[in-house]
Amino acid sequence: MTLNFDFIGIVTADLGASLAFYRSLGIDIPQGLDDEAHVEAVLPNGMKLAWDPVSTMAGFIPGYELPTGENRIAFACSAATPAEVDEAYAAITAEHPDSSGTAPWDTPWGQRYATVRDPDGNTVDLYAPLATDD
Question: From residue 55, how far is each of 10, 29, 33, 65 by CA, in Å?
Fold first, then answer.
């Protein structure tokens, strides 16, 4: 048997807010889907990212509640340069004021790194390699 990992699903308390947040990360999600029971976007590498409102899940799973706590899922978006990490963090937190996580910083492992939060508290890391002295 061979499995192909090709799908990431997010259960969200506010579908419209979640779609708007992920659009600001550059994911191509058509407008007008805020009231749908399920939304999918195919990423450039073929991976599918999908959203289901809590109400959809509750309709299939009796007693379903949105999980609580941080870091239920992990996402990361790469940038070409450290400056792009800073720019993306500034733009996303300006458009989504509740999304601020960890402001951009230089890691010991050689990356410019920042973290933002989607409307459900899931973290999304933004990163780029730091310049190296070759």
Answer: 13, 21, 15, 9
